[in-house]
Amino acid sequence: MSLNKPVTDWNGVRVWIIGASSGIGASLAKILLASGARVALSARNAQALAEVADGARPGQVMVLPLDVTREEQLAAALASINASWSGIDLAFILAGSHRSVRAWELSGAQARSLVETNLMGTMNACAVVIPQLIRAGSGGIAVVSSVAGYGGLPTSLVYGATKAALINFAETLYLDLAPRGISVYLVNPGFVRTPLTDKNEFRMPALISAEEAAQEIIRGFAAGRFEIHFPKRFTLWLKFMKLLPYRLYFLAVHKFTGM
């Protein structure tokens, strides 16, 4: 049985994508626009958002630049969406950043920056959206985390911690909101070719394109899944590794990553 209401027809669905300027968010926006959804696009880069919106039908897209760490900017953007579309049906929260950090490179200032964007940014967006969805008694929230949140991995000292927190956050959102008729989706991608992963200096197994990732998400919504993870040839191995005793898990990670 599906944990969420399956979404198979996007025509007219009002979607707010926060983190839509590049990567998975931009690819997802283009697919949804082509499927007839009304899509509000948010991120800090206004020019990139305009490029994603280019070619959409009049009234089908809104470009709302903002900084996800500023709750008042999120609230103002939602007010603009409500004024034009009388509400939203789905908030898709992808905004995030990545920085490779090993234990001997840890900086409190850099850690706070990642936590503010990756974790608090998502919580800020949810704090703005949830009251409206509860009043409507319908709709959904999609939280993008990462398989880096499944367990500790080299170079992900802070990034992985924020993603682990988002997994816990999304699980608890589901427990609170599903009984109220609100869907909650947890998206855990593996390695996806984006401007962030282009900075990685190590081999990324099972690397897929942002377009492939967006299609996986669409299929996950159609199935009404809570967790949408991909590519499974990679993510299932990581899920299996977390079942191992720590002695074996640490050995496997060292062997797998060479670090």
**CATH fold-type name:** Rossmann fold
End-to-end distance, in Å? 41 Å
- Please work out how many helical segments DSSP would assign: 8
Judged by helices, strands and strand pairing, the structural class is alpha/beta
Mean pLDDT: 94
* Shape-level CATH architecture: 3-Layer(aba) Sandwich
Brief overview:
The protein has 259 residues and is of the alpha/beta class.
Would you write up a description of this structure?
The protein has 259 residues and is of the alpha/beta class. It has a single domain (14-257), classed as Rossmann fold, CATH 3.40.50.720. The protein has eight helices and nine strands. Helix 3 runs parallel beside helix 4 (108-136) and helix 4 runs parallel beside helix 5. The longest helix has 29 residues, at 108-136. The radius of gyration is 18 Å and the shape is globular.
Q: What is the topological layout?
A:
Layout: E1 14-18, H1 23-34, E2 38-42, H2 46-53, E3 61-63, H3 71-85, E4 90-93, H4 108-136, E5 140-144, H5 159-177, E6 183-189, E7 192-193, E8 208-209, H6 210-223, E9 227-230, H7 232-241, H8 246-257
Parallel strand pairs: 1-2, 1-4, 2-3, 4-5, 5-6, 6-9, 7-8
Helix pairs in contact: 1-6, 3-4, 4-5
List keywords for this structure.
259 residues, alpha/beta, two-stranded parallel ribbon, 8 helices
